[in-house]
């Protein structure tokens, strides 16, 4: 009995090791392959840069909206959900540039409307800059400033305004 056990022991050990190694060996996908898969699902946005390190996908660049940012991160995860460990979403949402008003006649008309409730305030427009003079109560300074800023002039100069 001992001779049989001594002869079969190495075969059993080898068989067990082989079975364990086959079970624990799942196919490993390279970072380059993962990157290619993620890039294929983000290709519709040329401003997105994909990098992958040890299964962790990082997205960077700019997108037009928060929805697009979240959608791209989800698409990256689902490109190969089995092998993408996580997604680091460093995408930034592009904000629309503020267009300043440089047409003095148009801006003057808007300033007249914005200051109509401030009879002690005078505003003049020159070169896209609103210069405010006169006097105003402290509590009304901020609403006036916000109303004038909303017109998108180059600048609102309230330095000559007297605050009571």
From TrEMBL:
Domain BON: 26-95
Family annotation (Pfam families): BON
Superkingdom assignment: Bacteria
UniProt protein name: BON domain-containing protein
Species this chain originates from: Sphingobacterium suaedae
């Amino acid at each position: 009995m001992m001779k049989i056990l001594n002869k079969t022991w190495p075969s059993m050990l080898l068989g067990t090791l082989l079975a364990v190694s086959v079970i624990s060996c799942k196919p490993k996908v390279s970072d380059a392959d993962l990157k290619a898969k993620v890039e294929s699902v983000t290709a519709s946005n040329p401003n997105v840069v994909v990098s992958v390190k040890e299964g962790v996908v990082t997205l960077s660049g700019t997108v037009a909206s928060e929805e697009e940012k979240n959608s791209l991160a989800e698409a990256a995860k689902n490109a190969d959900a089995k092998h993408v460990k996580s997604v680091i979403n460093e995408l930034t949402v592009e904000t629309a540039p503020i267009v300043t008003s440089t047409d003095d006649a148009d801006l003057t008309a808007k300033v007249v409307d914005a200051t109509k409730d401030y009879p002690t305030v005078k505003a003049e427009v020159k070169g896209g800059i609103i210069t405010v003079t006169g006097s105003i109560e402290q509590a009304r300074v901020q609403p006036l400033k916000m109303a004038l800023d909303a017109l998108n002039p180059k600048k609102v100069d309230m330095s000559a305004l007297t605050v009571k």
